[in-house]
Every structure is written in structure tokens, then in C-alpha cells.
Amino acid sequence: MIARIAAGDRAAFGALYDATSAKLHAVCLSILKDRPEAEETLQEVYLRVWQGAARYAVNGLSPMTWLITIARNRAIDRLRARGSRPIAVVNSRDPLAPDLAETLPSAEPGPEAAAIASQQRRMLADCLAQLSDPQAGAVRAVYLEGWSYADLAAREGMPINTVRSWLRRSLLRLKDCVDQ
Amino acid sequence: MTIDDGSLTGPEADHALAAEFALGLLEGDELQIARDRMAVDAVFAAEVRMWQERLAELALALTPVMAPARARHAVRERLGHSVAPLSVDPADRVPVWRGSAGWLTGLAVAAALAVAVFSPALRSPQDRDGQQTETAGYRARLVSDDNALRVDAQISGREMQVTLQAGAAAQGRDLEIWWIDPDLAAPVSLGLLPAAGGMRMSLPGELEPGADIRIALSDEPAGGSPTGQATGPIVAIAPFTSL
What we know:
- The structure holds two protein chains of two kinds.
- Chain A is mainly α.
- Chain A has helices at residues 2-6, 10-32, 35-56, 63-82, 100-103, 111-115, 119-130, 133-145, 149-156, 160-179.
- In chain A, helix 3 (35-56) crosses helix 4 and helix 9 packs across helix 10 (160-179).
- The chains are: A mainly alpha, B alpha+beta.
- Chain A: One of its GO terms (biological process) is DNA-templated transcription initiation.
């Protein structure tokens, strides 16, 4: 499908959008925690997909990982440009807004995710479970919410270098585990 | 930022660096060096990709959140695809008129709504008959607190008919229809309630009818919510019941 998009196939692009936009929107929202910004970022992601599809073949990633990586990078760029992170996330004017917990990543994969769970997925989840809760939580916060080392240091009340050393150890443990 | 973990050996430091790069944790010179290294160091690049693939599993486990239809249209417009539609996806029928109505005003809104409200009714009712016979039907009766507004919503298969029985939006306002699914992170807009009569739509693929679904009407500025989420008060909400 991405090859068709690279060839300028608008129908394929539309189909890709329909199949993936809710997931990528969730990624943007998870990081940005702001609806209008997530929506704007989502648009940028698909502009990039359209423009970058020709280069996709050489990057070696699976299609969904490629899309997620673009979405995550764009959202984090925007988050870093913003400088500060909003604490209150739910728009109080929105009477239908679900509890924030519903839009935040859950440790439990949803039914859809479970259905397509690969051996790899189970292994990553298993390996995260083998880390301590703070370690696993930090990996999730960095990946799913775009935390920086400075954010982690502020949260943990530790110097940045200490936090970095601690997280690098966690990542190496994770790697050892998934490599087994 | 300096690395304060001299105990990491060379390969370990490389492994950690690949993970940090994949996570977006590197900054400044370190980021630039890692980027350059991606181009020339195949082992490093493969390790970064491994992390990206593994970590993507966390993203895949997120609950999907439908973006407002106008995002799709904005992408199309920004790519200059607005003349030829992105696709002929049936889900497009619902959003099209809502998205286009958002920036129109006055008579233009009325004209756009008239086209939008009636064209789905002309195109969609018959094309999914096969599914209709297999799938249960549902109905919701929406009534405002003062009983002035009454709207019926009925689902057959993947077609939904929304009918205004009594009442109207306030002057200069529109009533927006929301689909509330406990499994979706946010309510999904189904567009604006027509000023009179009824409308028929095909449910977008992500929406699964069921008895745990509720439907709501919110009071919005003309053209619908500017944010993609309800901004005004909910004037009526009701669960779907199985027919």
C-alpha cells in the first residue's frame, strides 16, 4: 500500500488514513494531551507520509512502526517546542470528555491489540513486567508521553545524570530480556 | 548532558545509545552524532530499528481515538487533493457535510446542509442490505429535559436514521449528534441534526452498534463544534436499546 502511495495513488492514501489515523491520533494525543494540537500534528504526519512514502522502502521498518515513529517524532517535536507540559488535561468545558485515564496508555492491551498481539508484543510486555514499577513506568512515560530526561528528573526528584544512568540500566535489562 | 555511568562497557553504551535514540531522549551533539551514525553504522541502525519495532507495540496497545473528519479534509486540501476525493470510503459521507459546513455561514450553511443531509439518504440506504439482515437493530429516543426537543435514532445493520420529531436548535445554533462508546476514548461526532425531518447515514467502520452505546445531542455554534469535541451543554442523551 505504501508503494502505491509513493506512486501517487490517492485512493490508497485515503485507505491508509482510514485504517491508521485513529491509532496515530491516539499516539499524538497521548504525547500532547491537547486535542487541537494532536489533530494538527496528525495532519502533519499524513502530509509527511504522502511526501515520504517513496523513501519508506529503504528505512527497513514495518509499515505500522514507520507510521507510529513519524507520529511520535512529530508530536514530541511539538511538545518540546511548547516548552511546558499542561498538567490539567481534560477540557473542563467538554461535558462529554471521558476520564483522562481512558485516553492514557493502559498496561493492559485492549481487545483489538490483544487479538493482533504477536510473540514480540507478549515478550515486550513480559519484559517490562520484569522491571520494577518505576523503571517500567519511566519507559512507558518516555515512549508514550514523550517525557525527556529533564521531565523524569523532575518527577523522581533526582539529578538528570542519575536518572539517565538509571534508565539506561533499565533499557539494557529490557534488551537482554527481549533478546533471549 | 554528560553520561554519568562509566561502568557501562563499550557495547553496552552503544546498546543504551540506540535505545535512547529510538526513544527520542538524545539532545544536542549526542543527537546529531547518533543521526550521523545511523547513516554509516549498519549495526547501530539495525539496533535502533529493533527498538522502534519493539516499542511500537506500546503504541499499538493504545485505545484508538478517531480524529474529527475535518482533519481528513484538511490533509486533502493541504496536499491539493481537494478536487479529487482522497477515496470513496463510505465513512466519508458522514463527515463531508459536517466538515464543509464548519467554515460556511448563513445561507451557505443552509445550502450545504441541505445537500449533505439529503445526499446520503439518496446514496446509502440500500447498499448494505446483506449486513442489515444479519445485524440486530437498535433504537434510542432522545428527549430534552423540557420535553420540547424529541429525536429518534434507529440503527438497522450499519445504517442509522435520525429523525427530528419535535423542537429545533436555538436561533443561530446547531445541534450536534454524538456517538458515545465506552470502548472509545472520546465521543465521536456524527454531524449536525438537520433543521427539519430526518437524515440517514452509514456508520463509519470504527463504530460498532450495541446496547452499550449512547447517543447525545449537544448545543453548538452554527456549523458544529469548532474543536471536534462537544463544547456546549448536552441537551439530550439516551442509550440504544435492542429492537
